[in-house]
Design brief:
Length: about 170
């Protein structure tokens, strides 16, 4: 019988790129109080003459992740997003990358081990700041086609390697 294990929040590690696409500087998103990725399926209903009910077709997805960061001065993730809050970037200035590393069957990573990972281009939308509850809310909207691959860690810093044939576009 196969062993099963629930994938818990600490086993999916999100990183935001504060560098460039060609020279990433990954900062782990640590102090968010929620992480609920919505896949936002775009659907279309088609009524075929031979069917009594319409058929729903999934055309594509547009994932997004709303997060609420705890506003802790000195935390790297808050520093990244608070800098964006101060500038309220638009256009290309609001775009960066998100790296999701999935540990899946272990509780913490081991240096030099490859883990499944997804690299996505995202637009960061600054939503709101709640000074009463000490949170900064932002939404990470996925752009284009994510790239699947693996990530390994050296001195706690992830390095992404694209899987062969992973960047497949939608029909």
């Amino acid at each position: 019988m196969a062993t099963t294990k629930m994938i818990q929040s600490h086993m999916v590690i999100p990183f935001i790129n504060r560098g460039t696409d060609s020279n990433p500087n990954w900062v782990q998103i640590k102090k968010t109080v929620d992480w609920n990725m919505s896949f936002n399926a775009e659907t279309e209903d088609r009524k075929y003459i031979s069917d009594r009910y319409a058929t729903t077709e999934v055309l594509r997805y547009k994932p997004s992740v709303p997060i609420s960061l705890t506003t802790i001065n000195g935390e790297d993730d808050f520093t990244v997003f608070d800098g964006m809050r101060k500038k309220l970037p638009t256009g290309d200035d609001a775009k960066t990358q998100l790296l999701l590393v999935r540990l899946e069957d272990v509780d913490e990573y081991t240096e030099g081990t490859d883990y499944p990972a997804t690299l996505a281009n995202v637009t960061v939308v600054i939503d709101s700041e709640d000074t009463v509850n000490s949170t900064l809310s932002v939404t990470l909207n996925f752009n284009g086609t994510p790239t699947e691959g693996t990530a390994s860690f050296e001195d706690g810093v992830p390095s992404f390697t694209e899987a062969a044939g992973s960047n497949v576009t939608e029909p």
